[in-house]
Design a protein that fits this description.
Elements lengths: L1 E6 L5 H10 L3 E4 H7 L6 H10 L12 H8 L3 H29 L5 E4 L14 E6 L2 H12 L3 H9 L4 H7 L2 E4 L4 H14 L5
Parallel strand pairs: 1-3, 1-4, 2-3, 4-5
Helix pairs in contact: 3-5, 6-7
Protein name: Dephospho-CoA kinase
EC number: 2.7.1.24
Family: Belongs to the CoaE family.
Length: about 200
């Protein structure tokens, strides 16, 4: 069985992923895969450099994420082009890793951590989607505290994602992470039991 794990910025998705891993789930991190597909020498990085120029490469051959970010956040068309280059290989590698894991350990839960799962239209890839939820006001407070942002900056970052209430409404499983860690663990235990998963 596999599930897609998502949430909003500062809702506590990493905490829930760690709790699921501690129970024995196999975690596949989409952010790590996104970094993997653009390692020096990869065909994907070559395509990105062809589209955006060699100045987006560091002297050691790695991608200069800051420079590329400056280009794509100022230009919606450039961002669309980058997504077109990156998304297919990221999705293909995610599917490969999921299939390998499910073949190797068919009874083990595979959890794929995808921050922008709904925004990218990836729900079709998973048996179910788990959303880590906190109300937007708590999301805002945690983000301000975590990243030392102004209220306005934090609000802009939250606004760049699908509203958390919309994600909650779409989810197959909702883990409310607005209370204590113990409360979150209780909900995960209930999910684990309901699915008949073993530690």
């Amino acid at each position: 069985m596999n599930i897609g794990l998502t949430g909003g910025i500062s809702t506590g998705k990493s905490t829930v992923a760690a709790l699921l891993a501690a129970r024995g789930a196999h975690i596949i991190d989409a952010d790590l895969i996104a970094r993997e597909v653009v390692l020096p020498g990869s065909p994907v990085l070559r395509e990105v450099a062809e589209r955006f120029g060699n100045e987006i490469l560091l002297p050691d051959g790695n991608l200069d994420r800051k420079k590329l970010g400056g280009i794509i956040f100022a230009d919606a068309l450039a961002r669309k082009d980058l997504d077109g280059l990156l998304h297919p290989p990221i999705r293909a590698l995610m599917r490969t890793r999921m299939a390998e894991q499910e073949a190797a350990e068919p009874t083990r839960l595979v959890v794929v951590d995808v921050p922008l799962l709904y925004e990218s239209g990836l729900e079709y890839m998973f048996n179910e989607v788990m959303v880590v939820y906190v109300p937007e006001e708590i999301q805002l407070e945690r983000l301000i505290l975590r990243d030392k942002l102004s209220r306005e900056q934090a609000g802009q970052r939250i606004a760049s994602q699908m509203p958390i209430e919309d994600k909650k409404a779409k989810a197959d499983i909702v883990i409310d992470n607005s209370e204590s860690l113990q409360e979150t663990e209780k909900q995960l235990e209930a999910f684990w039991q309901r699915k008949g998963l073993t530690l």
